[in-house]
């Protein structure tokens, strides 16, 4: 078992699954969340409850969970024109990317995480990026992550490993991975406690969890859950 890792933990389905994946593999796991002025900032409020739930439900994981960090990246929201940080319509743009694309987000996240991991002595950095079942964001592609890994290692003089356990699986497989890692308890926790909806809606309860039910994040999560339940 490798010694230590830092998980990019937003409070969403993907990052919670990645956190469980890390707890299953590493002796010490720390977490970091980013407040960047997101419309769905409520996801950050979910993080504490999820961590507490993991500790209570999985005694073998509890001793491995280390410090949780939150980094203020509000400047990223202020300089963006993304529907993730502005009260604007979620739609496709002429560029071929959805209006929810926030340029540089994952690049900044991973760079900040690496700076934190450098200080904390955490050689593995784990993120929920995926290019199998995603919205087309270029900073979610494996090619981007590998290039950034090289740049961070060169620029910091360390040998970080950027782990992306969801990179080549779809949302249905992400639900299956959660079940394999933590059984029905983890699936239930992810369904009920995590937040994915871009609009920050936790007033509507669906089979797959809370959300508006219509934004792209909700649609992707709902479709994946349905396929998971059907064994597809």
Care to describe what's here?
Helix 1 (13-23) links the parallel strand 1 and strand 2. Helix 1 crosses helix 6 (171-193) and helix 6 (171-193) packs across helix 7. The chain is globular, with a radius of gyration of 17 Å. Strands 3-2-1-4-5 form a five-stranded parallel sheet, sandwiched between helices. It has seven helices and seven strands. The chain is 43% helix and 15% strand.
Return Rg in Å. 17 Å
- Number of continuous helical runs: 7
**What fold name goes in the CATH topology slot?**
Rossmann fold
Describe the largest sheet: 5 strands, parallel
Pattern of helices and strands: EHEHEHHEHEHEEH
Q: Quick one: overall form? A: globular
List keywords for this structure.
alpha/beta; five-stranded parallel beta sheet; Rossmann fold; 7 helices; 232 residues; 15% strand; two-stranded antiparallel ribbon
Set out the fold topology.
Blueprint: E1 2-8, H1 13-23, E2 26-35, H2 42-57, E3 65-72, H3 74-78, H4 105-120, E4 124-126, H5 142-156, E5 161-163, H6 171-193, E6 205-206, E7 209-210, H7 216-229
Helix pairs in contact: 1-6, 2-6, 4-5, 6-7
């Amino acid at each position: 078992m490798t010694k230590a890792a830092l998980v990019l933990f937003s409070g969403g389905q993907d990052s919670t699954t990645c956190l469980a994946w890390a707890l299953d593999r590493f002796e010490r796991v720390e977490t970091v969340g980013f407040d960047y002025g997101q419309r769905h900032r409520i996801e950050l409020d979910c993080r504490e409850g999820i961590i507490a739930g993991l500790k209570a439900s999985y005694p073998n994981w509890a001793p491995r969970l280390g410090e949780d960090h939150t980094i203020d990246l509000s400047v990223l929201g202020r300089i963006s024109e993304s529907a993730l940080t502005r009260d604007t319509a979620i739609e496709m743009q002429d560029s071929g990317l959805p209006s929810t694309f926030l340029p540089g987000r994952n690049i900044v996240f991973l760079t900040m995480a690496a700076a934190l991991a450098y200080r904390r002595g955490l050689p593995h950095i784990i993120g929920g990026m995926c290019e199998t079942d995603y919205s087309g964001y270029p900073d979610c592609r494996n090619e981007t992550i590998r290039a950034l890994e090289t740049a961070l290692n060169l620029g910091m003089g360390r040998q970080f490993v950027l782990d992306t356990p969801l990179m080549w699986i779809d949302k249905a497989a992400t639900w299956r991975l959660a079940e394999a890692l933590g059984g029905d308890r983890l699936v239930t926790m992810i369904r009920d406690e995590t937040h994915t909806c871009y609009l920050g809606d936790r007033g509507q309860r669906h089979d797959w969890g809370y959300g508006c039910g219509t934004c792209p994040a909700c649609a992707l999560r709902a479709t994946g859950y349905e396929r998971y339940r059907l064994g597809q």
